[in-house]
Design a protein that fits this description.
Blueprint (H helix, E strand, L loop, with lengths): L2 H13 L7 H13 L3 E4 L6 H11 L4 E5 L6 H5 E6 L4 E6 L6 E5 L6 H13 L1 E4 L2 E4 L5 E6 L12 H4 L4 E4 L5 H8 L3 H10 L6 H11 L6 H16 L3 E3 L3 H17 L7 H12 L4 E2 L1 H5 L4 H11 L6
Parallel strand pairs: 1-8, 1-9, 2-5, 5-8
Antiparallel strand pairs: 3-4, 6-7, 10-11
Helix pairs in contact: 1-2, 1-9, 10-11, 11-12, 12-14
Amino acid sequence: MSTFYKILTKIIEESTRVLVNREDHVKLIVFTIVAGGHALIEGIPGIAKTLTAKVVAKLLNLKFSRIQCTLDLLPSDVIGTKVYNQKTGEFEIRIGPVYANIVLVDEINRATPRAQAALLEAMQEKQVTIEGETIKLPTPFSVLATQNPIELEGTFPLPEAQLDRFYIKIHMNSLDRDSLVQLLKRSYKYLEREYEMLKPIVTVNEVFNASEEIDSVYVDDDILRYISRIVEYSHKHPASKLGVSPRGAIMLLTLSREFALAENRKYVIPDDVKMAAVPALSHRIFLKPEYVVEGYNGIKVVSEIISHVEVPKP
């Protein structure tokens, strides 16, 4: 049994003490952190986007910080700034909340483009530059950003360059009837108490070991060609204005390997690629306006691409 599989199983099981019917979303967040990527969590208000991210962060023995995005958020509020020390007579660096292993950026689309851009270097280079001085961020480093897809007033849509830096996009849906009944049986105080009682159940070394296992998963050339055909067709789809980038292809391959490890397998099969396609690619396909009006979105386009591209046969 791999370290990756053990970590994932333990975290999913422990998270159910607080969360209801969020196992798939917890799995994707764990995938993100172990791979050292970043996740964009999208859903309507009140469906536990922030709570889900906080629960996973608490179960991992990693430094956690939170940034609440508002219209007046400044880049220095994110990465930090230099402050004059009257005792020494020198300027000293005061590091911002981005200096952590897991950074929860709540309602990222409420921040101005200037503040959003402050995250770009951190997300891509794993470092920040404060007045000419470069500071390396801790390892592992993951940004978990939440956003509300329906509230447009006072928000700033993420640019394509920043969207492509997210490893995956997690679409959180509302609870079904049975899950909602199960949630209603728990009081709000019960949920708060259970969250406070959560303890880290994974060591940092286990996270590093699980991360190293990803590259050891075998991928046949037929699977690589399958991924290439998916990426190629993303540019040919009639609704697509801009298809998947080479970075997106690498992210799809990495996520497919993680889905294989989640099944305690050391090799990738086409079903792994199919399951990874929507979270890895749906935010990387930019649609023509006329198709957006017709109700198309990234999920629908990726689903059509997967149904169109021929699956490799064993």
